[in-house]
Amino acid sequence: MPPKLTSRIQRINGVRLAGQPSTWDIQIEYPTDSGTITSVTPHEDEGTHITESPLALPALTHPHIHLDKAFIHSTPEYAQFLPSTGTFQEALSSTTKAKQQFNHADLIKRGEWLLAESLASGVTAMRTFVEVDHTVQHICLKAAAELKEKWKQACEIQIVCFAQDPIFSTEHGDQNMRLVSEALDKYPQIEVLGTTPYVETSIDAAKANIDWAIDRALALDKHLDFHLDYNLDTTKEPLVWHVLHTLKQRGWTTGLTTKRVMLGHCTRLTLLSENEWIRIARDIHENDLPVSFVGLPTSDIYMASSAGVNGSETALQSRPRGTLQILEMIRKYGLDAVIAVNNVGNSFTPWGAPDPLALACLGVGVYQAGSQDDAELLFDSLENLPKLGIRPGDTVILIVVHVVPKVVGRQILLNNHETILS
Questions:
Q1: pLDDT at 389
Q2: What parts of the chain have a pLDDT lower than 50?
Q3: CA 201 to chain centre
Q4: pLDDT by residue (tens digit) across 315-355?
Q5: What span, in angstroms and rounded, lies between the C-alpha atoms of 339 and 327?
Q6: Which GO terms of the molecular function aspect are on file (predicted)?
Q7: Taking the CA atoms of the chain, what radius of gyration do you get in angstroms?
Q8: Do residue 395 and residue 323 come from a single domain?
Q9: Whole-number pLDDT of residue 59
Q10: Does the CA dihedral 88-89-90-95 come out positive or negative?
């Protein structure tokens, strides 16, 4: 169930702000139903040591998370689907079998579990993927629409109608495409179309998948989100080139539409040369393409490796892992890039938690990012929209992080109310 919110908060006293050496008081007024920060002034009471003061941050988001597959491994009904080899094909196969057991009550239960843990971590907005295919048809989408309405006061949920399975190959491709098309027509709650070109059985089918998705999203004025190039195989053609080419060909620019295109995983791109990265950045910048990238480290470093390719064993000393170097992409190439949680508690990611701040901590090691500037950019790249500065006029959606003995938790201010979670 969504949390119960307290009455309106008028003032927050004695909090730290990122990059500031002292503590501050934040005044909040309510000219409308949403609270607005009207002043941020120095805190005068010196009785509390600054290290004991909570830290106020903009609220967090999940730019990429799967609602319907969350916590499969934590549910007794799915105990038979725990990983044994840890490969992508096993994850795809076992999840397909698990989906045969999905029902509305189960989806609501696990979905609310994910929402509750996310909100407790300071997340107040998320882009959530729900699958549509011949196995589940529209039951995941129906549950997501119900949760979107039920939790709207606590969390903004942006629904992705997601084709995890092929739509241009295999015996179920036509049926999968028909179900996705029907869902896009039937559910106005859908804001994003998502597909997975790399699951198609041929490169031609993968490119057809991309072409269809771009044309369909443009026609319906939807955002587009591809799971793309999820491999570390230099023999495979990176599909990112076809995506950029097709976007240019169709004229999908920031001048044409406000809708954006997100490219997720893209581990194959970690094998590109410097010149190829320059070409990607130039294509995006010079053609005004509204393209963003999302790295998914918890999934990528678990799943994206060259071990066991074609059933063979890879030498112990030669098992590279791949995940997009998000900070370098931002700094060096000026690309729009974020990091996200992706999956929680299933065969694609059987570890981790739906906590963006924990993900940022992982990023310190993954990206060798230990400086203060790195920390600020990591926080910014959790979502890329909120900035670290909190200024008068900002709408109040904050998390207040307590990190002192006996007080470990996060207070979350949602527009004009407060909820306390530990």
A1: 38
A2: 307-311, 384-391, 405-408, 416, 420-422
A3: 26
A4: 555 667 899 999 999 999 999 999 999 999 999 999 999 99
A5: 10
A6: hydrolase activity, acting on carbon-nitrogen (but not peptide) bonds, in cyclic amidines
A7: 22
A8: no
A9: 86
A10: positive
Query: How many residues comprise the chain?
Result: 422
The DSSP line for 16-27 is EETT-SSEEEEE
State how far the Cα of 243 lies from the Cα of 110, in Å rounded to an integer.
Answer: 34
Is the pTM above the cut of 0.85?
A: yes
Are residues 248 and 271 both part of a single domain?
yes
Helix (H, G, I), strand (E, B) or coil at 386: coil
Contacts of 74 by beta carbon, 8 Å cutoff, 6+ apart: 345
Chain Cα centroid distance, residue 229:
17
Quote the distance between the C-alpha of residue 5 and its chain's center. Answer: 26
**Rounded-to-integer distance, Cα 296 and Cα 362, Å:** 11
Q: Select from 19, 38, 43, 18 the least CA-distant residue to 27.
A: 38
- Give the H or E element holding residue 375: helix 372-380
Domain count of the chain?
2
Distance between CA 174 and CA 349 in Å, rounded? Answer: 29
Considering the domain architecture, whether residues 139 and 162 belong to the same structural domain is answered as yes
Output 28-31 pairs: Cβ under 8 A, ≥24 positions apart: 28/396, 30/416
Strand pairing class (407-414; 397-404):
antiparallel
Q: What CATH number is associated with residue 118?
A: 3.20.20.140
Question: Residue 76's CB: how many other CB atoms inside 10 A?
Answer: 5
